[in-house]
Amino acid sequence: MTEPEILNDVARILADFQGREYLGTIDRETRFFADLGLASIDAVVLGEMLQDHYGRPLPFGELMGEIGRREDRDLTIGELTAFLSRSL
Amino acid sequence: MPRLKVNGLTFHIQQAGEGPDLILIHGLTGDLSIWFLCKAMTELSRSHRVTAFDLRGHGYSDVPPTGYTSRDQAEDVLGLMDAVGARQAKLVGHSFGAVIALHTAVLAPERVEALVLSDPYFPALRHLEDLSRWGHWEAFQKEAADAGVSLSSEHWYDIGKFFNQVMHLDEAKLLQFRQAVGLPGMNRLLRLGTTTAGDDSKVEAGLTLEKILAVRQPILALYGDGSPFLSTAEYLASHLASCRQVLIPNSQHRAPEENPEAFTSALISWVESLAPMEVTR
Q1: Over the stretch B241-274, which tens digit does the pLDDT of each residue have?
Q2: Per the CB < 8 Å rule, is B38 touching A65?
Protein backbone atom coordinates (compact mmCIF):
# COMPACT_ATOMS: atom_id res chain seq x y z
CA MET A 1 0.00 0.00 0.00
CA THR A 2 1.20 3.50 -0.77
CA GLU A 3 1.27 6.29 1.79
CA PRO A 4 -1.37 8.36 -0.07
CA GLU A 5 -3.73 5.35 0.04
CA ILE A 6 -3.10 4.95 3.77
CA LEU A 7 -3.60 8.69 4.34
CA ASN A 8 -6.98 8.34 2.59
CA ASP A 9 -7.98 5.49 4.92
CA VAL A 10 -6.87 7.41 8.03
CA ALA A 11 -8.69 10.59 6.95
CA ARG A 12 -11.88 8.60 6.27
CA ILE A 13 -11.78 6.88 9.67
CA LEU A 14 -11.06 10.18 11.46
CA ALA A 15 -13.95 11.88 9.64
CA ASP A 16 -16.38 9.76 11.67
CA PHE A 17 -14.41 9.72 14.88
CA GLN A 18 -16.46 10.57 17.95
CA GLY A 19 -15.60 13.81 19.74
CA ARG A 20 -13.67 15.21 16.78
CA GLU A 21 -13.91 19.00 16.60
CA TYR A 22 -11.72 19.66 13.53
CA LEU A 23 -13.58 20.42 10.32
CA GLY A 24 -10.66 21.25 7.98
CA THR A 25 -9.00 18.90 5.53
CA ILE A 26 -6.86 16.23 7.16
CA ASP A 27 -3.42 16.10 5.56
CA ARG A 28 0.11 15.00 6.45
CA GLU A 29 0.72 18.11 8.57
CA THR A 30 -2.44 17.78 10.69
CA ARG A 31 -1.55 17.15 14.32
CA PHE A 32 -3.50 14.50 16.17
CA PHE A 33 -3.79 16.31 19.50
CA ALA A 34 -3.26 20.02 18.77
CA ASP A 35 -5.34 20.21 15.55
CA LEU A 36 -7.86 17.39 15.80
CA GLY A 37 -8.38 18.09 19.50
CA LEU A 38 -8.20 14.41 20.33
CA ALA A 39 -6.72 12.88 23.49
CA SER A 40 -4.29 9.99 24.01
CA ILE A 41 -7.15 7.62 24.86
CA ASP A 42 -8.58 8.43 21.41
CA ALA A 43 -5.24 7.40 19.89
CA VAL A 44 -5.57 3.99 21.59
CA VAL A 45 -9.08 3.59 20.19
CA LEU A 46 -8.02 4.80 16.72
CA GLY A 47 -5.22 2.20 16.84
CA GLU A 48 -7.86 -0.48 17.47
CA MET A 49 -9.98 0.79 14.57
CA LEU A 50 -7.00 0.76 12.20
CA GLN A 51 -6.08 -2.78 13.24
CA ASP A 52 -9.68 -3.83 12.55
CA HIS A 53 -9.61 -1.97 9.23
CA TYR A 54 -6.40 -3.63 8.05
CA GLY A 55 -7.26 -6.96 9.68
CA ARG A 56 -3.91 -7.43 11.40
CA PRO A 57 -2.14 -6.50 14.63
CA LEU A 58 0.04 -3.39 14.39
CA PRO A 59 2.72 -2.32 16.90
CA PHE A 60 0.70 0.62 18.27
CA GLY A 61 2.12 0.06 21.75
CA GLU A 62 5.56 1.02 20.42
CA LEU A 63 4.20 4.11 18.67
CA MET A 64 2.31 5.24 21.80
CA GLY A 65 5.42 4.67 23.92
CA GLU A 66 7.39 6.86 21.53
CA ILE A 67 4.80 9.65 21.77
CA GLY A 68 4.97 9.40 25.57
CA ARG A 69 8.66 10.29 25.39
CA ARG A 70 8.23 13.32 23.13
CA GLU A 71 8.44 16.83 24.46
CA ASP A 72 5.23 17.98 22.73
CA ARG A 73 3.42 14.61 23.01
CA ASP A 74 1.92 15.06 19.56
CA LEU A 75 1.85 13.12 16.31
CA THR A 76 1.28 14.35 12.76
CA ILE A 77 -0.95 12.36 10.44
CA GLY A 78 2.10 12.10 8.15
CA GLU A 79 4.03 10.32 10.92
CA LEU A 80 1.07 8.03 11.54
CA THR A 81 0.79 7.07 7.87
CA ALA A 82 4.57 6.50 7.65
CA PHE A 83 4.29 4.21 10.70
CA LEU A 84 1.40 2.33 9.10
CA SER A 85 3.24 2.08 5.79
CA ARG A 86 6.26 0.52 7.58
CA SER A 87 4.06 -1.91 9.53
CA LEU A 88 1.62 -3.04 6.83
CA MET B 1 -12.91 -1.93 20.62
CA PRO B 2 -13.10 -4.49 23.42
CA ARG B 3 -15.92 -3.86 25.86
CA LEU B 4 -16.90 -5.91 28.89
CA LYS B 5 -20.08 -5.84 30.94
CA VAL B 6 -19.20 -5.79 34.65
CA ASN B 7 -21.50 -4.88 37.59
CA GLY B 8 -24.12 -3.67 35.10
CA LEU B 9 -21.71 -1.23 33.41
CA THR B 10 -19.80 -1.40 30.15
CA PHE B 11 -16.03 -1.07 30.52
CA HIS B 12 -13.47 -0.33 27.82
CA ILE B 13 -10.52 -2.69 28.16
CA GLN B 14 -7.31 -3.36 26.27
CA GLN B 15 -5.42 -6.62 26.49
CA ALA B 16 -2.01 -7.76 25.33
CA GLY B 17 0.28 -10.75 25.83
CA GLU B 18 -0.01 -14.27 27.23
CA GLY B 19 0.88 -15.68 30.64
CA PRO B 20 0.03 -14.91 34.27
CA ASP B 21 -2.54 -12.14 34.65
CA LEU B 22 -1.65 -8.56 35.47
CA ILE B 23 -4.19 -5.72 35.73
CA LEU B 24 -3.35 -2.03 35.19
CA ILE B 25 -5.48 0.56 37.05
CA HIS B 26 -5.15 4.27 36.19
CA GLY B 27 -5.95 7.20 38.51
CA LEU B 28 -8.75 9.74 38.93
CA THR B 29 -9.30 11.93 35.80
CA GLY B 30 -6.92 9.67 33.79
CA ASP B 31 -7.55 6.75 31.46
CA LEU B 32 -5.81 3.57 30.29
CA SER B 33 -3.68 5.41 27.70
CA ILE B 34 -1.21 6.23 30.50
CA TRP B 35 -0.06 2.57 30.35
CA PHE B 36 0.61 2.81 26.62
CA LEU B 37 2.43 6.14 26.86
CA CYS B 38 4.83 4.87 29.56
CA LYS B 39 5.25 1.57 27.64
CA ALA B 40 4.20 -0.55 30.65
CA MET B 41 1.54 -2.24 28.50
CA THR B 42 4.05 -3.29 25.81
CA GLU B 43 6.87 -4.26 28.19
CA LEU B 44 4.72 -6.24 30.65
CA SER B 45 2.94 -8.07 27.82
CA ARG B 46 6.19 -9.92 27.02
CA SER B 47 5.73 -12.00 30.19
CA HIS B 48 2.07 -11.50 31.21
CA ARG B 49 -1.45 -11.33 29.94
CA VAL B 50 -1.95 -7.64 30.64
CA THR B 51 -5.44 -6.15 31.00
CA ALA B 52 -5.83 -2.37 31.21
CA PHE B 53 -9.24 -0.79 31.63
CA ASP B 54 -10.86 2.63 31.83
CA LEU B 55 -12.30 3.10 35.32
CA ARG B 56 -16.03 3.83 35.57
CA GLY B 57 -16.60 7.49 34.70
CA HIS B 58 -13.38 7.62 32.65
CA GLY B 59 -12.20 7.19 29.06
CA TYR B 60 -14.56 5.02 27.02
CA SER B 61 -16.25 3.28 29.98
CA ASP B 62 -19.77 4.03 31.22
CA VAL B 63 -20.35 6.96 33.56
CA PRO B 64 -22.78 6.05 36.37
CA PRO B 65 -23.79 8.95 38.64
CA THR B 66 -22.52 7.22 41.82
CA GLY B 67 -20.33 4.38 43.07
CA TYR B 68 -16.80 5.79 42.91
CA THR B 69 -15.32 4.79 46.29
CA SER B 70 -12.24 2.55 46.30
CA ARG B 71 -14.52 -0.24 47.52
CA ASP B 72 -17.00 0.18 44.65
CA GLN B 73 -14.15 0.17 42.16
CA ALA B 74 -12.35 -2.76 43.81
CA GLU B 75 -15.58 -4.66 43.08
CA ASP B 76 -15.19 -3.54 39.45
CA VAL B 77 -11.66 -4.99 39.40
CA LEU B 78 -12.89 -8.32 40.79
CA GLY B 79 -15.79 -8.37 38.32
CA LEU B 80 -13.40 -7.59 35.48
CA MET B 81 -11.09 -10.41 36.62
CA ASP B 82 -14.08 -12.79 36.54
CA ALA B 83 -15.04 -11.55 33.08
CA VAL B 84 -11.57 -12.13 31.59
CA GLY B 85 -11.13 -15.43 33.47
CA ALA B 86 -8.35 -14.30 35.78
CA ARG B 87 -8.50 -16.31 39.01
CA GLN B 88 -5.53 -14.43 40.41
CA ALA B 89 -3.58 -11.41 39.20
CA LYS B 90 -0.85 -8.93 39.97
CA LEU B 91 -2.36 -5.45 40.32
CA VAL B 92 -0.57 -2.28 39.28
CA GLY B 93 -2.29 1.00 40.18
CA HIS B 94 -1.39 4.65 39.83
CA SER B 95 -2.59 7.25 42.35
CA PHE B 96 -6.25 6.49 43.21
CA GLY B 97 -5.86 3.38 41.04
CA ALA B 98 -3.36 2.13 43.64
CA VAL B 99 -5.92 2.74 46.39
CA ILE B 100 -8.38 0.63 44.38
CA ALA B 101 -5.68 -2.06 43.93
CA LEU B 102 -4.97 -2.29 47.66
CA HIS B 103 -8.69 -2.32 48.44
CA THR B 104 -9.08 -5.24 46.02
CA ALA B 105 -6.40 -7.15 47.97
CA VAL B 106 -8.31 -6.44 51.21
CA LEU B 107 -11.63 -7.66 49.77
CA ALA B 108 -10.21 -10.78 48.08
CA PRO B 109 -6.64 -11.53 49.27
CA GLU B 110 -6.61 -14.93 47.59
CA ARG B 111 -7.07 -13.32 44.18
CA VAL B 112 -4.23 -10.82 44.40
CA GLU B 113 -0.73 -12.15 43.94
CA ALA B 114 1.26 -8.92 44.28
CA LEU B 115 0.72 -5.15 44.23
CA VAL B 116 2.48 -2.19 42.69
CA LEU B 117 1.33 1.06 44.30
CA SER B 118 2.38 4.07 42.25
CA ASP B 119 2.21 7.28 44.26
CA PRO B 120 -1.05 6.76 46.13
CA TYR B 121 -2.34 8.82 48.99
CA PHE B 122 -4.74 6.91 51.27
CA PRO B 123 -7.68 8.63 53.00
CA ALA B 124 -6.87 6.54 56.10
CA LEU B 125 -3.31 7.95 56.13
CA ARG B 126 -4.37 11.53 55.60
CA HIS B 127 -2.83 12.59 58.90
CA LEU B 128 0.65 11.87 57.48
CA GLU B 129 0.49 14.30 54.58
CA ASP B 130 0.42 18.00 53.95
CA LEU B 131 -1.95 17.87 51.03
CA SER B 132 -1.30 21.45 49.99
CA ARG B 133 1.78 20.00 48.29
CA TRP B 134 -0.39 17.77 46.11
CA GLY B 135 1.45 18.06 42.81
CA HIS B 136 -1.40 16.95 40.63
CA TRP B 137 -3.63 19.73 41.87
CA GLU B 138 -0.85 22.29 41.47
CA ALA B 139 -0.19 21.15 37.91
CA PHE B 140 -3.89 21.23 37.11
CA GLN B 141 -4.31 24.64 38.62
CA LYS B 142 -1.43 25.90 36.49
CA GLU B 143 -2.94 24.39 33.33
CA ALA B 144 -6.25 26.04 34.15
CA ALA B 145 -4.51 29.36 34.83
CA ASP B 146 -2.78 29.12 31.44
CA ALA B 147 -6.24 28.72 29.97
CA GLY B 148 -7.37 31.92 31.68
CA VAL B 149 -9.29 30.11 34.39
CA SER B 150 -8.42 30.79 37.99
CA LEU B 151 -9.43 27.99 40.29
CA SER B 152 -9.75 28.72 43.97
CA SER B 153 -7.11 27.18 46.23
CA GLU B 154 -9.49 27.40 49.14
CA HIS B 155 -10.87 23.97 48.37
CA TRP B 156 -7.79 22.60 46.65
CA TYR B 157 -8.08 19.25 48.40
CA ASP B 158 -11.67 18.81 47.36
CA ILE B 159 -11.87 17.47 43.83
CA GLY B 160 -15.69 17.56 44.03
CA LYS B 161 -15.57 21.33 44.56
CA PHE B 162 -13.05 21.63 41.74
CA PHE B 163 -15.38 19.84 39.32
CA ASN B 164 -18.12 22.14 40.49
CA GLN B 165 -16.08 25.24 39.71
CA VAL B 166 -15.21 24.03 36.22
CA MET B 167 -18.86 23.23 35.58
CA HIS B 168 -19.93 26.76 36.44
CA LEU B 169 -17.42 28.65 34.28
CA ASP B 170 -19.05 31.22 31.99
CA GLU B 171 -19.06 30.65 28.24
CA ALA B 172 -15.92 32.63 27.43
CA LYS B 173 -13.86 30.97 30.16
CA LEU B 174 -15.17 27.56 29.25
CA LEU B 175 -14.00 28.13 25.66
CA GLN B 176 -10.51 29.05 26.91
CA PHE B 177 -10.47 26.03 29.16
CA ARG B 178 -11.53 23.83 26.27
CA GLN B 179 -8.74 25.18 24.07
CA ALA B 180 -6.23 24.30 26.78
CA VAL B 181 -7.33 20.75 27.59
CA GLY B 182 -9.00 19.85 24.27
CA LEU B 183 -12.67 19.17 23.66
CA PRO B 184 -12.72 15.47 24.53
CA GLY B 185 -10.64 16.11 27.64
CA MET B 186 -12.95 18.88 28.79
CA ASN B 187 -16.09 16.90 28.02
CA ARG B 188 -14.79 13.95 30.00
CA LEU B 189 -13.90 16.17 32.93
CA LEU B 190 -17.33 17.82 32.87
CA ARG B 191 -18.91 14.38 32.65
CA LEU B 192 -16.96 13.13 35.67
CA GLY B 193 -17.97 16.34 37.45
CA THR B 194 -21.63 15.25 37.33
CA THR B 195 -20.80 12.14 39.39
CA THR B 196 -19.87 11.55 43.02
CA ALA B 197 -16.27 10.63 41.99
CA GLY B 198 -14.70 13.68 43.64
CA ASP B 199 -16.29 13.16 47.04
CA ASP B 200 -16.06 9.37 46.88
CA SER B 201 -12.28 9.51 46.42
CA LYS B 202 -11.88 11.20 49.81
CA VAL B 203 -13.52 8.54 51.96
CA GLU B 204 -11.97 5.41 53.49
CA ALA B 205 -14.92 3.28 52.40
CA GLY B 206 -13.70 0.48 54.69
CA LEU B 207 -10.02 0.71 53.73
CA THR B 208 -9.02 1.44 57.32
CA LEU B 209 -5.47 1.69 58.64
CA GLU B 210 -5.89 -1.69 60.33
CA LYS B 211 -6.87 -3.34 57.05
CA ILE B 212 -4.06 -1.68 55.11
CA LEU B 213 -1.54 -2.95 57.67
CA ALA B 214 -2.90 -6.51 57.45
CA VAL B 215 -2.09 -6.87 53.73
CA ARG B 216 0.49 -9.65 53.25
CA GLN B 217 1.11 -9.68 49.50
CA PRO B 218 4.48 -8.52 48.12
CA ILE B 219 4.15 -4.77 47.51
CA LEU B 220 6.25 -2.35 45.52
CA ALA B 221 5.70 1.25 46.65
CA LEU B 222 6.80 3.26 43.62
CA TYR B 223 6.97 7.00 44.32
CA GLY B 224 8.39 10.03 42.56
CA ASP B 225 11.46 11.33 44.41
CA GLY B 226 9.64 14.68 44.52
CA SER B 227 6.27 13.15 45.32
CA PRO B 228 3.99 15.11 47.63
CA PHE B 229 3.23 11.79 49.33
CA LEU B 230 6.69 10.66 50.49
CA SER B 231 5.47 10.38 54.09
CA THR B 232 2.95 7.80 52.91
CA ALA B 233 5.73 6.02 50.99
CA GLU B 234 7.90 5.85 54.12
CA TYR B 235 5.00 4.68 56.24
CA LEU B 236 4.09 1.86 53.85
CA ALA B 237 7.70 0.69 53.57
CA SER B 238 8.23 0.60 57.33
CA HIS B 239 4.84 -0.78 58.41
CA LEU B 240 3.77 -3.26 55.76
CA ALA B 241 5.00 -6.83 56.01
CA SER B 242 6.56 -7.19 52.57
CA CYS B 243 6.77 -3.76 51.05
CA ARG B 244 9.72 -2.51 49.07
CA GLN B 245 10.09 1.16 48.24
CA VAL B 246 11.64 2.53 45.04
CA LEU B 247 11.86 6.23 44.23
CA ILE B 248 11.73 7.40 40.62
CA PRO B 249 14.16 10.27 39.91
CA ASN B 250 12.98 13.61 38.50
CA SER B 251 9.34 12.88 39.23
CA GLN B 252 6.58 14.24 41.38
CA HIS B 253 3.12 12.67 41.48
CA ARG B 254 3.04 11.45 37.89
CA ALA B 255 6.17 9.36 37.37
CA PRO B 256 4.61 7.32 34.51
CA GLU B 257 4.39 10.59 32.54
CA GLU B 258 7.27 12.53 34.08
CA ASN B 259 9.92 9.82 33.81
CA PRO B 260 8.40 6.94 31.82
CA GLU B 261 11.73 5.15 31.21
CA ALA B 262 12.68 4.95 34.89
CA PHE B 263 9.11 4.20 35.99
CA THR B 264 8.58 1.31 33.61
CA SER B 265 12.05 -0.10 34.13
CA ALA B 266 11.56 -0.14 37.95
CA LEU B 267 8.16 -1.75 37.46
CA ILE B 268 9.50 -4.46 35.14
CA SER B 269 12.51 -5.38 37.28
CA TRP B 270 10.36 -5.76 40.40
CA VAL B 271 7.73 -7.85 38.59
CA GLU B 272 10.49 -10.04 37.16
CA SER B 273 11.99 -10.50 40.62
CA LEU B 274 8.68 -12.11 41.65
CA ALA B 275 8.87 -14.83 39.00
CA PRO B 276 10.76 -17.48 41.03
CA MET B 277 8.14 -17.28 43.80
CA GLU B 278 5.48 -17.91 41.23
CA VAL B 279 7.14 -21.13 40.03
CA THR B 280 7.41 -22.60 43.53
CA ARG B 281 3.80 -21.82 44.42
Answers
A1: 899 999 999 998 899 999 999 999 999 999 999 9
A2: yes
Q: Is residue B169 located within the same domain as residue B220? A: no
What residues in chain B have their Cβ under 8 A from chain A's Cβ atoms? 1-2, 12, 14, 16, 31-34, 36-39, 41-42, 45, 54, 59-60, 182-185, 187-188, 257, 260-261
State the residue range of the domain holding B176. Answer: 131-199
Say yes or no: B187 and B207 in one domain. Answer: no
Evaluate whether B210 touches B107 at the Cβ level (below 8 Å). Answer: no
- Residue of B14, B38, B182 with shortest CB distance to A68: B38
The verdict on B141 and B243 lying in the same domain is no
**Cross-chain residue pair A39–B39, CB shorter than 8 Å:** no
3-state secondary structure of B3: strand
Which residue, B246, B244, B245, B235, is CA-closest to B213? B235
Q: Are residues B116 and B231 in the same domain?
A: yes
DSSP string, B74-86: HHHHHHHHHHHT-
The residue from B161, B182, B199 where one domain ends is B199
Q: How far apart are the first and last CA of chain A?
A: 8
Minimal CA separation from A46 to chain B, in Å: 9
Query: Does position A20 have pLDDT exceeding 90, yes or no?
Result: no
Distance CA B166, CA B168 (A): 5
Do B194 and B212 share a domain, yes or no?
no
Percent of chain B with pLDDT strictly greater than 90: 68
The CATH architecture that domain A3-87 belongs to is: Orthogonal Bundle (1.10)
A-to-B residue pairs, Cβ atoms closer than 8 angstroms: 71
3-class DSSP assignment, residue B18: coil
Q: State which of B175, B199, B223 marks the end of a domain.
A: B199
Q: What is the pLDDT of residues B1-15, one digit of tens each?
A: 589 999 999 999 999
| pLDDT reported for residue B276 | 56
Residues B155 and B192 in one domain: yes
Structural domains counted in chain B: 2
Distance from CA of B35 to the nearest CA of A (A): 9
